[in-house]
Amino acid sequence: QVQFVESGGGLVQPGGSLRLSCAASGLIVRIYAMGWYRQAPGKRELVARITSGGSTNYADSVKGRFTISRDNAKNTVYLQMNSLKPEDTAVYYCKAVTQDYWGQGTQVTVST
After folding, report:
1. Whole-angstrom Cα Rg for the chain
2. Phi, psi at residue 83, to the nearest 5°?
C-alpha cells in the first residue's frame, strides 16, 4: 500500500521559510519522478518535480525560491521554501507524478 505523509507546514510571515517533508512507504521515491503539488481554492498546481535521475523542475511562480530534494536512505522527499509570499498559501502534497496516491497534505499559511 502506497502512502505519503507530509509534514512541516505552518503559519509563517511573508519572507519566511519552511521545509516540508514527505515520508513515503510502499513506493521507492528514487525510482519515480516525485512532485510537490499545492491546492488553493479553485486551483491545483505542480510546484516542483524531481526525476529519478535527480533533475529538478519548478513552476515559474516558485523558481528561485523553492528547492526540491530527496533522501534515498530515508525514502523522503523535501521542499525547502524560502522568501515565502501570501500567494504561496495552500495545502501542499507530494506524490509520484505518474501515480494517483495522495497523502493528507500539510497546510502552509503565509500571513502577517
Report:
1. 13
2. 50, 50
Distance (Å, rounded) from C-alpha 59 to C-alpha 110?
18
With the C-alpha atoms ordered 64, 75, 102, 108, is the resulting torsion angle positive or negative?
A: negative
CA gap 46, 86 in Å, rounded: 17
**Residue 82, helix vs strand vs coil:** coil
Q: 29, 41 in Cβ contact below 8 A?
A: no
pLDDT-derived band at 28, boundaries 50, 70, 90: very high
What grid cell was written down for 50? 524531481
Q: What is the pLDDT of residues 39-81, one digit of tens each?
A: 999 999 999 999 999 999 999 999 999 999 999 999 999 999 9
For 103, the grid coordinates are 497523502
Specify whether the CB–CB gap between 81 and 17 falls below 8 A. yes
pLDDT at 2 (0 to 100): 93
